[in-house]
Write a structure and sequence with these properties.
By secondary structure, this protein is of the alpha+beta class. It has a domain of about 110 residues: Immunoglobulins (Immunoglobulin-like), CATH 2.60.40. It is built from 16 helices and eight strands. The protein has a five-stranded mixed beta sheet, with no helix packed on it. A three-stranded antiparallel beta sheet has the order 1-3-6, with no helix packed on it.
Length: about 375
């Protein structure tokens, strides 16, 4: 970008959550609750080269800097950090508290587990607890099972989220990738949780499992009370990847396992030729050809042109509906065709297909210039 560029300024980088002002303010707050805190040692560790560090590197820098300034034993440091916790004014920045536990508390299991439970209500201890799972899976899961019965939703959610086999932004728990059964007691306790915050985690945990053990995961769901509203919500979200793949058993678990009896009357794309940044409008018209009501899951699939000239498909959710006998429906969807960090578009013909209950029933195409 040139110095004369008049475009809007870019959004602040996430790493600026840990800018110099934040480091200084955190040190001041720590000193306010613990006068013996060594400010000079803290800042000497914190500030050099800060500008060149990424978000997660800055988080770890704050953890190490607090350690440099905290006097006394590990347990005394935990007491001080508990006092600091409510004085931190940013949820993500509170991750420094459990990070301290994961970095310095592996030799004091009981005190560390208690601290992770306390700190998770301010942000989340999901990353730090994995250090203990990696070190002693059985012992840590025993504590986390108790957490799954806690009255606080953040603690219950930690039991599920922290033990996910493939938690984003963290390392895989290879033992659980190979065999997910050790976390089943936690998931069983949470399968009808009243908290949406918890249910989202349980569904994501199950979706992780589905990537390696889809049949095992669906066996578990098949034994759950899917007529219960909270359990049904978890199951539907947990099955989302398999449903996008058109898995018949997954579709059956959400009541859409039967082949669709519909007549597609039209499927159109507008415009048929567009430039990057423009919107594509999809319109689908279809009619029931069945003599009974049908539950339908409608998705659409874009075959994106790759740099090599080949294509790669991505499935998008469109609509779930109950279709009465003879009923006609028109669905529309508007989607902007733009680049993301995870997807770069290339010029060429892009085919779009409609999938109903996993079956591809119609296609059209647009050209990206």
């Amino acid at each position: 970008m040139s110095d004369t560029d008049d475009s809007p300024a870019a959004a602040p980088a996430l790493k600026d959550w840990f800018d110099e002002a934040r480091f200084r303010r955190t040190g001041q707050e720590m000193g306010a609750v613990l006068p013996a805190f060594k400010q000079k040692a803290y800042l000497a560790q914190a500030l050099p080269g800060l500008e060149d560090l990424s978000l997660m590197q800055r988080l770890r820098r704050m953890t190490e800097s607090l350690h440099a300034g905290l006097p006394g034993s590990y347990r005394q440091s935990l007491d001080a950090l508990r006092q600091l916790a409510p004085r931190i004014d940013h949820n993500f920045v509170t991750l420094v508290l459990p990070d301290y536990v994961g970095l310095y508390g592996l030799e004091d299991f009981d005190a560390s587990m208690a601290a992770l439970k306390d700190f998770t209500v301010y942000g989340s201890s999901e990353f730090a607890v994995r250090e203990f799972l990696k070190r002693d899976l059985t012992r840590t899961l025993k504590v986390m099972k108790k957490w799954s019965e806690d009255e606080h939703e953040a603690v219950r959610r930690l039991a599920s989220e922290g033990s996910r086999p493939r938690l984003p932004w963290s390392f895989r728990l290879e033992e659980l990738v190979k065999d997910p059964s050790p976390t089943l007691p936690i998931l069983e306790n949470l399968k009808a949780d009243s908290s949406l915050y918890v249910r989202k985690s349980v569904a994501n945990h199950l979706n992780d499992i589905a990537k390696d053990h889809p049949e095992w995961m669906m066996d578990r769901l098949a034994g759950w009370p899917l007529g219960e509203v909270h359990t049904a919500w978890i199951a539907k979200r947990a099955l989302r990847t398999l449903i996008k793949q058109g898995d018949a058993r997954a579709l059956g678990l959400v009541g859409a396992g039967e082949p669709p009896e519909v007549e597609v009357q039209s499927f159109t794309l507008n415009p048929r030729k567009l430039e990057l940044g423009q919107h594509l409008t999809l319109e689908l018209q279809f009619k029931s050809a069945a003599k009974r009501a049908q539950r339908l899951v409608v998705d659409y699939v874009i075959h994106y042109v790759k740099k090599s000239g080949g294509t790669a498909e991505k499935v998008f959710k469109w609509k779930e509906l109950e279709l009465a006998p003879g009923e006609a429906v028109t669905l529309t969807r508007r989607q902007q065709i733009k680049d993301f960090t995870t997807r770069v578009h290339y010029a060429g013909k892009h085919v779009v297909e409609v999938a109903v209950n996993g079956q591809r029933l119609a296609k059209a195409a647009f050209v990206l210039g």
